[in-house]
Design brief:
The chain is α+β, with helices and mostly antiparallel strands. It has eight helices and seven strands; from the N terminus they run E-E-E-H-H-H-E-E-E-E-H-H-H-H-H. It has two domains: 258 residues, CorA soluble domain-like (Beta Polymerase, domain 2); 59 residues, Magnesium transport protein CorA, transmembrane region (Methane Monooxygenase Hydroxylase, Chain G, domain 1), CATH 1.20.58. It is rod-shaped.
Length: 324
């Protein structure tokens, strides 16, 4: 699909198909999962080479940031789905020419749709291809910041559930299932954060190249510096959050170990408590005629009392030592 944005008193958004003439004064051409026919159409129209999905997924810098035929090519990794707990990363290409900004993507990116809504209300954001590029990158960075804030709130919720539980007279314990759920949520938060950090790093590299390659007449240097500072602060905050998540992960594993040890301790103490009564029952269960209590009238109550006492005394001793 091809979306074309034309500035004016009101920003005009138009969907066109291959073979259709571009609207006069079109600035931003948004290519969403383009077909080969649409790629060839834009290449003839704008005089640029549209990168394929395979080209966009290349990881070396020389394949993602370069100049060709007076056009600047930027390919950045954009994180999506962080707010929906379904974090993914996708490559998006930005092609800046003197007449057009061309974006190529193969997935829905919320920041692009939000920016499209903004430019319809404020056409100055898209008054030139260079201004449209930095304004679009600003929307991507802003959405990335929202995603990192969402991860931070989720991590804080996990921390409260793990360490700030509501306490009554008896300390409440977290079940193993609840702790396992916390581990799953921590893993999801770490995955989303790693994708956000990857996106921030990729965008920083793209902005660094754009600052070097953009023409001075575009007057976007100050905007690029502001975005670079924003990404640096986001990267620092993401690093802090990563450290916090690792701490919470270690703490959750420690809590699981404590809960499992508590269960094993209960079984061990139960075995020790019932060991003396079992011994007494074994002694008086032997088939010998010379047992002194065998014909004693109070022999049976004596054996029962002895077994009960031998079970209670170890329990009281463990409580006194604080082992239970």
């Amino acid at each position: 699909m091809l979306r074309v944005f034309t500035p004016g008193s009101d920003m005009v958004q138009t969907e066109i198909s291959a073979g259709t003439a571009l609207p006069a004064g079109a600035v931003w051409i948004d290519m969403i999962s383009p077909t080969r026919e649409e790629e060839l159409f834009i290449e003839r129209l704008a005089g640029v080479s549209v990168p394929s999905l395979e080209d966009m997924d290349e990881i070396e810098t020389s394949s993602r940031l370069y100049e060709e035929n007076d056009a600047i090519y930027l390919t950045a990794t954009v994180a999506t789905g962080i707010m929906r707990e379904n974090a993914e990363t996708h490559s998006v290409s930005f092609i800046l020419t003197s007449r057009h900004l061309i974006t190529v993507r193969y997935t829905d990116v919320m920041s692009f749709d939000r920016f499209a809504g903004h430019v319809e209300r404020q056409s100055s954001l898209c008054e030139s291809p260079a201004m449209a590029l930095v304004s679009l990158l600003d929307a991507v960075v802003d959405r990335l910041a929202d995603g990192i804030e969402h991860i931070g709130k989720d991590v804080d919720t996990i921390s409260r559930q793990a360490f700030r539980r509501v306490r009554t007279n008896n300390q409440q314990r977290i079940s193993n299932l609840a702790l396992q759920s916390l581990l799953v949520r921590l893993g999801s938060a770490q995955d989303a954060l790693s994708k956000a950090r990857e996106s921030a790093l990729s965008l920083s590299r793209a902005l660094g190249f754009l600052a070097f390659a953009a023409p001075k007449s575009a007057n976007i240097g100050a905007h690029i510096k502001s975005l670079t500072r924003d990404l640096a602060s986001l990267s620092d905050h993401a690093t802090y959050m990563g450290t916090n998540i690792n701490f919470l992960l270690d703490a959750a594993l420690g809590l699981i170990s404590i809960e499992q040890n508590a269960v094993l301790k209960i079984f061990s103490v139960s075995a020790i408590i019932f060991m003396p009564p079992t011994l007494i029952a074994g002694i008086y269960g032997m088939n010998f005629d010379l047992l002194p209590e065998l014909h004693w009238h109070f022999g049976y109550p004596w054996a029962l009392g002895l077994m009960i006492a031998s079970a209670i005394l170890p329990y009281l001793f463990f409580r006194w030592r604080g082992w239970l």
